[in-house]
Amino acid sequence: MNRTIKEATVKRFHYDDHAQLKKHLADFIDAYNFGRRLKTLKGLTPYEFICKQWTLEPDRFIIDPIHQMPGLNT
């Protein structure tokens, strides 16, 4: 994991200050965790698992999870 983070952030970009590095690192970690497939969820990402559960049991959810996707909604 540490090597993955280094290769995707520090070794690929130049940062003017520490705050810029922190922001980019936080964005990378969020995207990485959002898109990571987990064995405990039978190979699904957390978002895919939530969407699957929503289709099986929509009454457990207050709002549609498809509208809660992080990032730009274009």
UniProtKB/TrEMBL annotation:
User: Which positions fall inside the Integrase catalytic domain?
Assistant: 6-49
User: Which terms does the record give in the GO molecular function aspect?
Assistant: nucleic acid binding
Organism field: Rhizobium aethiopicum
- In Swiss-Prot or TrEMBL terms, this protein is called Integrase core domain-containing protein
Q: Which Gene3D superfamilies match?
A: Ribonuclease H-like superfamily/Ribonuclease H
The record's annotation in InterPro entries points to: Integrase_cat-core, RNaseH-like_sf, RNaseH_sf
- Please name one Pfam family that this protein belongs to: rve_2
- GO BP, one annotated term: DNA integration
